[in-house]
Design goal:
The protein is of the alpha/beta class. 25% of the residues lie in helices and 28% in strands. It comes from Candidozyma auris (Yeast).
């Protein structure tokens, strides 16, 4: 029976399995249990809907800065582990604009690890922007990446089970040493957890075909973020967003939000239209899909915590990454696994 059970098959669950393997846990001792698995689609399974890149929008508390740095610096190893860029993970130039300037603590952290980091000159910034940077980022083709990740874990011997748990205690088998709760927004309703601090942060994105765009451009405004993300190994898909709607559980998408996204992204980065072979109008863009997703937000930030349940069984919580699971999740998993194995790293 499995010694380590991970509940949740989103990006945080996969990163956690990866970190267990890195710490010499045998694949046969790892089981991932979830209702939804890579390749599935549901508003309750957020990871496949993410824009999917490393960005500089996360908080500046010491834990978050550490999670970002660990993840950014380890993604190259993970890419090699998964067989190269064709797994759905590759590097692209990223330009990021900030309406409100980032803190000195955050900037100082970036300077220790971001590749080819350059601070933009004031004269090169859009009118309503106070700060800007360029660097080499990591981009994810989230659906492809998750499937690649799962396939590799399976090939090594990690087991997956499709099962919906009503209570976290159902994850414990006779020989289970540790259960990792990686259920994201599901932690709000999962029995034995019932975290009422968890809440959705709805986003809507537009996916277009744009072979001439080979970079990311983002503008961070707390009220309405705007982002353009190249999706690697996707037959030239470009992700346009977006929205950050706290407490909104709506799975539907809306035309007015789509139109707003198209307007904001093409104003921020006119090249989307300038090299469009069919013309220079928004109406000529080839829209492939419009989709909504519910980021797993949490008051107070991510919860990475050790708990003892019935008869002293260990439960490690690892959820609440909001929109930052892909870019901070290896660092989060590193801390969660360190807690499980009683090793202090972060």
């Amino acid at each position: 029976m499995p010694h380590y059970v991970i509940v949740g098959a989103g990006i945080i669950g996969h990163y956690t399995a990866y970190k267990l393997l890195e710490n010499n846990v045998h694949p046969d001792d790892i089981l991932i249990v979830a209702k939804f698995h890579p390749g599935d689609e549901s508003i309750n399974y957020t990871s496949p809907y993410a824009g999917g890149n490393f960005s500089c929008i996360t908080g500046d508390d010491p834990d978050t800065l550490a999670y970002d740095k660990v993840t950014y610096t380890e993604l190259g190893n993970l890419q090699r582990f998964l067989g190269g860029p064709q797994c759905g993970l590759d590097r692209y130039k990223s330009t990021e604009y900030f309406v409100e300037p980032p803190s000195e603590r955050k900037i100082a952290s970036w300077k220790t690890y971001l590749y080819d980091l350059a601070i933009l000159r004031e004269e090169d910034l859009p009118e309503d922007v106070s700060y800007g940077i360029e660097y080499i980022s990591w981009n994810f083709n989230c659906p492809k990446f998750l499937v690649s990740f799962q396939n590799l874990l399976k090939s090594l011997g990690v087991r997956f089970e499709r099962r919906e748990l009503k209570n976290i205690r159902e994850a414990y088998y006779t020989d289970t040493k540790v259960v990792f709760n990686c259920t994201g927004l599901g932690s709000r309703s999962l029995g034995g957890v019932n975290d009422d601090k968890s809440f959705p942060m709805r986003g809507q994105v537009v996916v277009i075909k744009a072979p001439h765009i080979q970079e990311n451009v983002m503008k961070w405004d707390a009220a309405k973020p705007t982002y353009i993300i190249k999706r690697p190994y996707s037959n030239d898909q470009l992700i346009l967003g977006g929205f950050l709607q706290k407490g909104d559980w709506t799975a539907d998408t809306f035309r007015e939000q789509t139109e707003d996204i198209l307007k904001r992204t093409t104003e921020l980065y006119p090249k989307i239209l300038e090299e469009n072979r069919k013309g220079k109008r928004i109406e000529d863009l080839e829209i492939l899909r419009v989709v909504a997703g519910l980021r797993p937000g949490r008051e107070g930030g991510a919860r990475i915590e050790k708990e003892f349940v019935d008869a002293g069984r260990v439960l490690i919580h690892n959820y609440g990454a909001a929109g930052y699971g892909y870019q901070a999740g290896i660092g989060m998993a590193d801390k969660a696994v360190s807690l499980a194995l009683d090793r202090s790293k972060l």
